[in-house]
Design brief:
The protein is mainly alpha-helical and 264 residues long. Helix content is 74%, strand content 6%. It is built from nine helices and three strands; from the N terminus they run H-H-H-H-H-H-H-H-E-E-E-H. The chain has a three-stranded antiparallel beta sheet with strand order 1-2-3. The radius of gyration is 22 Å and the shape is flat.
Length: 264
Amino acid sequence: MNNVFDTRRFFLLFRKTVLERPMQLIGFTVLMLSIVFIIYAFFKSMGAIPEGQNASFMFGFAGGGCFLGAIIFGYFNTNAKGAAYLLLPASQFEKWLVSVLITGVFYTLIFLLFYRLMDSFFVDAYHKKLDPKSIYYTELRDEMQILPFDGFVFKTTLMMYLNFTGATMLGALFFNKASFLKVALIFCGLLFFSYFLNIIVAKMMMSGVQNAMPYLWTWIRINDAEGRIEMNTVVLNVWQYCAFILVPFILWVLAFVRLREKEF
C-alpha cells in the first residue's frame, strides 16, 4: 500500500470526514446558501439588485470559503478530537487533500451552481417587471444581466477566495482557538498597512494624490482636474500572477507543511 496516496484509503477518509460531521459541513453549506439568498432578496426588495448580485456573490464565495476552510482545518487542533483525527491511518497528503477537495472543489461547485440558478431566477423576474414601452427599457434590461463567470466581479472574488481561504486554512493549524477571528485581524492589518504605505509612497513621489489602491492605481488632483494613474501592463501582469497563483499556492502548500509538523 502506497504511503503517500491510496485510492481506497483516501475514499474511506473522505467518507468518514463528511459523515461524522454532517451538521458542520452540509449544515454550514446549506446555511451559507440560505444567507446568500436572503442577501440577494433583501437588496432586490430595496431596488438595488445589481448591488445585491455582487454583495451576495462575494459574501457566499469568498466568505463561505474562509469559514469552511477554518472549520475543516480546525479538525487538526491539538485537542482530543483533533488528536484522534491526526492519528487516523492515512497519510498527511490524504488528510490535506480531503480538506482541500471539500473546501476548494465541492463547495465551489455547489455554490456556483446554486448561485447561477438563483441569479437567473432573480434577473428573469427583474426583466419581466420592466415596462417594454418605457424609453429606458433597453438600457435597464442590458444594465442587469446574469453575473458572468469571466467578469471583473468574479475574478476579484476568486482572488479573494483563493487568498483568504488559504490564510484561514493555515491559521486554523496555528491557532487552536478563535483562529478565524485572529486570521481576519492579521489580514485586515496587513491590508490597512499596505494601503496607507502605498499612499505615503505615492505622496512622496508626486503631488495632488487623493487616493491610492496598492499596486493598482493612484488618483491625483491638479487644480480642478482629477485623473487616475494606472500601473503599466507588465507590472499589472506580475501583480495578477502573484495575487491569483503565487500567494495562494504558497498559503495552501504551507497548510500542508504545517499539517505535517503537527502530526510529528
